Amino acid sequence: MNAVAARPHRLTPDQVPDTVVEVLDRDEKAELTERIRRLLREQDATLVAHYYTSPELQELADASGGYVSDSLDMARFGTECASSTLIVAGVRFMGETAKILNPEKRVLMPDLGAECSLDLGCPPDEFAAFCDAHPDREVVVYANTSAAVKARADWMATSGIALDLVRHLHAEGRKILWAPDRHLGAWVQKETGADVLLWDGACVVHEAFKADGLRVLKAEHPGAMVLVHPESPADVIALADFVGSTTGIIKAAKELPADTFIVATDNGIFHKMREAAPHKTFIEAPTGGKGATCVSCAHCPWMAMNGLRSLARVLERGGNEIHVDPTIRERAARPIQRLLDFARSRRAVVLGNNDA
Ligand code: 13P
Ligand code: SF4
């Protein structure tokens, strides 16, 4: 069973900022990089970046002893890293997850305006009412949610482990309430056969990928394989040779026997894909372009808010610290920690960037 019970939660165009990518010349990049590396050392800080951030940030994270990965692995790394300050280059839920798991650490973000359409499309009060209306269901929320929504959940999930977790719950006879991404939830339901009730939210980046355009592109590149993040619509997923998390997609690019890949996820991932498979060719899956319904054109407007300039500013002037209400934090920590323990017990903690 796969039912959608909540009302649609999509952002209006004015809620989605333009995607503005930081442009730096060589001298500015070198100067900022040096300055940030010094500030990181002086402040006992470690930079943890998501695969969708700029190549400059990812290179800096790698070169300064930090980390670049997917959302689950970023959370795990934060708990193992000894630094007293974590700089999370990603979106707000990633910073909040880091703070929830490491309340004693200072967690900073280059830009606190870096939201996520899934998080914004799941207001905590409405979500709590939805859960109250279905008390017989195990509440599983995607990492891309606020601390208050996590506080209402039994489990947190990420795309890297959602199938494993829901298969496990289904085998225990549990019915699932899944939020907020309906595409990811529908894919999980289809793959596991579990009884899943869906919240109707979506990612503005992934929901824009188009199956029609993808079919045309496949025909133009007959040898290409298609890699899709499961936040994409079902008709796009149906055309995929591989469906999985960002780490899974990078690994697939390296291991699958093709020289060309069409990729349906944020194009920030191309940096690590090219590192992992330098001789292969990567093509963006079509979104329909600005004139159609493409809001982001395959690059998350909120991820793009992270840059070297904003990172330097935050280290120099302070501010942009993540705070989570202690009561909410305590409750939100449970579903996250439960997932990390589950992942460890399955030995399914997603491979880090060194393994991708
Ligand atoms: P991953 O957990 O696969 O990194 O995805 C996070 C995300 O925001 C995808 O849009
Ligand atoms: Fe959220 Fe989509 Fe951006 Fe990921 S790509 S952070 S799901 S808006």
Describe the structure.
The chain has 356 residues and is of the alpha/beta class. It has three domains: 2-14 and 118-198, Rossmann fold (3-Layer(aba) Sandwich); 17-116 and 303-333, NadA-like (Rossmann fold, 3-Layer(aba) Sandwich), CATH 3.40.50; 206-284, Rossmann fold (3-Layer(aba) Sandwich). The chain is 41% helix and 15% strand. It contains 15 helices and 13 strands. It has helices at residues 26-42, 55-63, 71-80, 92-101, 117-120, 124-132, 147-150, 162-171, 182-192, 211-220, 234-237, 246-255, 270-276, 308-317, 326-345; strands at residues 2-4, 45-50, 67-69, 85-89, 106-108, 137-142, 155-157, 175-179, 196-198, 225-228, 242-243, 260-264, 281-284. The strands form three sheets. A five-stranded parallel β-sheet has the order 1-9-8-6-7. It has a four-stranded parallel β-sheet with strand order 3-2-4-5, with helices on both faces. Strands 11-10-12-13 form a four-stranded parallel β-sheet, with helices on both faces. Mean pLDDT is 92; it is low at 348-356. Residues 70-72, 144, 158-160, 203, 231, 245-246 line the site of 1,3-dihydroxyacetonephosphate (13P). Its main location: cytoplasm. One of its GO terms (biological process) is 'de novo' NAD+ biosynthetic process from L-aspartate. It catalyses: iminosuccinate + dihydroxyacetone phosphate = quinolinate + phosphate + 2 H2O + H(+).
